[in-house]
Amino acid sequence: MKFIIDLIEDVREQIGNHEAYVVMAGLLKEDAEDKHKLIYAGEAPLNLAVLNEVKRQLTFKIDGSDQKVTVGTLIPPLLILDMDAMMYELRIDVNEQYKEMEIVGFGKNDEERRYILFIKI
Predict the structure, then answer these.
(1) How crowded is the C-beta side of 78, counted as CA atoms within 13 Å?
(2) pLDDT at 31 > cutoff 90
(3) Rounded CA gap, 62 and 29, in Å?
(4) In the chain, which end has fewer C-beta atoms inside a 10 angstrom radius, N or C?
(5) Angle between the N-to-C axes of helices 71-79 and 4-15, in degrees from 0 to 180, rounded to the nearest 10
(6) For 21, which DSSP code?
(7) What is the pLDDT of residues 32-56, one digit of tens each?
(8) 38 contact partners, CB below 8 Å, separation of at least 6
(9) Burial of 91 (C-beta count, 10 Å sphere; 0-12/13-18/19+)
């Protein structure tokens, strides 16, 4: 399970808060032959980030729009949250079937300026 504070720290360490990076969802699937291995199955841009105080979550959404979440639009509002909110869980709504998917890790692609939030199906 990942929290807002984990995201802030990783973005700072991995890409130095570079504002131009687009935040993506990366899909990992279990290997059919070896359940301990994960296979990269693609990625999609995240279109929206919503802070839900009732559920104590920061939920990213993929809605197919042209809007894209960037590090420059995501991180500054998170930095001013109080310590309690820094412990909100990170989740991704991929579609109607896959809602509130747990983020299992972070990654980056420097060549394409992408910061990736990995989920597992």
Answers:
(1) 28
(2) no
(3) 18
(4) N
(5) 130
(6) P
(7) 888 888 899 999 999 999 999 999 9
(8) 28, 29, 30, 31, 120
(9) buried
User: Under a CB-based contact definition with an 8 Å cutoff, are residues 45 and 62 in contact?
Assistant: yes
pLDDT (tens digit, 9 = 90+) per residue, 59-70? 999 998 999 999
Tokens of 78: 């998170």
pLDDT of residue 34: 86
Which region holds residue 118: left if phi is over 0, alpha if psi is between -120 and 50, else beta? beta
Local structure of 117: helix, strand or coil: strand
